Amino acid sequence: MQRLPDTPIPTYLVESQASANAHLADELSALLKERPRDLILGLATGSSPVGLYAELVRRFEEDWIDFSFVKTFNLDEYRGLPSGHPTSYRTFMAEHLFSKVNLGPRNTHLPPTKAEDLDAACQAWEEEIQATGGIDWQLLGVGRNGHIGFNEPGSAFDSRTRKVELAESTREANARFFDSGDEVPTEAVTMGIGTILEAKRVRVLAFGPTKADVLARVLRGEDDESIPLNALRRHPDAALFIDEAAAAGLRG
Ligand code: GLP
Fold it and tell me: Strands, E, within 15-154: which ranges?
């Protein structure tokens, strides 16, 4: 793993996704040992974290780590999918992590999407995060347009948890998880960029050629507030872990 020089957000080039996953799993394992009773994690969905979750499951099965007292808050959830829908983020988290480790349903939180008064429910959800003492370690992926969570380009850097419309490019990118493109919801609820910036540590995984363009714009370009990932320039303990393919635009 190599720290890239002169990047506005600390960035590590990894030789493989597995090496990024092992590094983050080590960091989390150490945090779990230090704070076994009150660690609060912010979690992400998408393809990027799948390998990390598998590594955490492996460590749990081998008795290295224990999630009994951990609480989790996920970044985002689609709106308009019935409970238990195969592509809801709740189902994704159950399949990749929650059902495979000792994380009980009372300790896992996804943003509210069905409340009649959604604004009030989002505010209550934020208050719930704050009541725990706040997120210690937040995992993020990044959209090809630079979105974080479902904060699409143009989202305010002080935005809070709220209902959002998905960009067409995001719906197209995520259509691979659905039977047809028409089924991809048009709305979601996401933690705001301001909410994400309050996490004590933020760790971003970005792999593959589809992330190269936006990473070049963020890591080699000006501080442009229309790209949500740029918000992490303002965070005191954020780091990106990217592979060769995602780093392709950084040369020269
Ligand atoms: C989705 C999620 C984001 C995620 C992004 C990247 O739109 N809402 O939280 O970071 O996709 O996904 P992937 O990791 O599959 O590239």
Answer: 40-43, 71-74, 76-78, 108-109, 137-140
